[in-house]
Write a structure and sequence with these properties.
It is built from six helices and two strands. The chain is mainly alpha-helical. The two termini are 22 Å apart. Belongs to the SufE family.
């Protein structure tokens, strides 16, 4: 499934919910399914700067496919990073680096976050893209 198809799947899932309280609950549920980072990778250099809560992101490139794992101490943030990972996991570094994460705007996520969470979202996307750029061959 391409990045575009994964994004459309998320857009369709969010369209089911009428109000943002239901959407937040769904985001929290997604966080519970997050591929968790191993404890050994919960280090200062993997902490995403600019997030109100602590968010660790580990990125590996295996067979020219990006593999992200993460964790957060906040349930909403955990769900947000889970959404981002879902879109770009198992994609080439080039595709991750070029991804525009259009689903964020389509589902209205950024406008329904507090300013500090919104900044954190931007930082998460930036870190994922930077990790992908490092892996480009």
């Amino acid at each position: 499934m391409s990045i575009k198809e994964k994004e459309q799947e998320i857009i369709d899932e969010f369209a089911i919910y009428e109000d943002w309280m239901d959407k937040y609950e769904y985001i929290i549920e997604l966080g519970k399914e997050l591929p968790l980072i191993e404890e050994q990778y919960k280090t200062e250099d993997r902490l995403i700067k600019g997030c109100q809560s602590q968010v660790w992101l580990n990125a590996e490139c295996i067979d020219n496919k990006m593999n992200f794992t993460a964790d957060s101490d906040a349930i909403i943030t955990k769900g947000i990073i889970a959404l981002l990972i879902r879109v770009v996991n198992d994609e080439s570094p080039e595709d991750v680096a070029r991804s525009e994460f259009k689903f964020i705007k389509e589902i209205g996520l950024q406008e329904h976050l507090s300013p500090t969470r919104s900044n954190g979202l931007v930082s998460m996307v930036k870190d994922m893209k930077l990790n992908a750029l490092k892996a480009v061959k």
